[in-house]
Amino acid sequence: ARVPQHIWVPPSLGGAGIQAAINALASTGGVIHLAGTYKEITQEIVLPGGASLPITLQGSGRETATKLHWPYDLGSGKWAIRRADATNWNRHVIADVHLVGPNPTAALGSDPAAMNGVQLSGRMVLNGVKVQGFHGGVVPWTDHVTLNDCFLNQNKYGLLYQAGQPTNGNIRLWNCDLSGQTYASIGVESGATCAVDLYGTHLGYSPYGIFGEGTTTGDLSIRMTGDSIIEEVGNAAIFGPAAGHAFDCVINGLATFNAGYSIGGGKELGMFLWGYWTENTFDFTKKLGLPAASPGTASLVYATHVSSASDDNIFWVSNATWNML
Asked: How far is the C-alpha of 88 from the C-alpha of 93, rounded, in Å?
């Protein structure tokens, strides 16, 4: 049987030391142990692609024990951690670390950085990871990726779907917290086509729960189960451009439904709420320049559960028709 290789990287070696350890394990796979604060990381950390064996970046705790800090913005198209070949299938794991970007205290509505946090691709797994201060905290890039017990906070978007990525499904979040972004818990770039399953995952405490950028066609299919919730948003739980995105939602595990809400341009919003979703949707301290969601506000969609004892829900879809499912 193959014996996993282990390398311990002290904080004094910084990002270069982490990359050297990754390169040393590229052909064998193994575990890289991290502990303490790795300051002044000024490069992308690149995990191997191709047919390499899995590598685990293993920290000793995301809150205070292991912190990796990128104090300077590497720029658009750059990442804190990515894989060399984003379309192959290596089950790399990042666990129990705190990744801090250039601006983890950015103001509401602003973009903390041009660079992204983690490019999650090809069966990669994040376990107990905290990501703060990036444009997109985590960007799913191919199918079959998983986040377990992760906290994405103070990014522009906690989870970001980018146009051009070769994926549209099998992206799963278990017991994660995506609240407290500067813009939205989940962002969808113009033209992006994606799907996500949320299990016991929290969205909100941001201007938007889910935000679709731009005006070109792109779809998001989202399934929320367990105690997943969108709450305390300033502008809208779900926002899509009038002719831009089709949001196709299943809340709390109902796998079949009929799309029933037009948001303009021939696109539809299909959503069915069951049981507890949110009873306190809005937090106006999180509101940006657009008015809070209300009838008559262009291209703004939100829903509020009105009675925990019934299946009745209110849907307000502005600039469009609406009907109960």
From this structure: 15
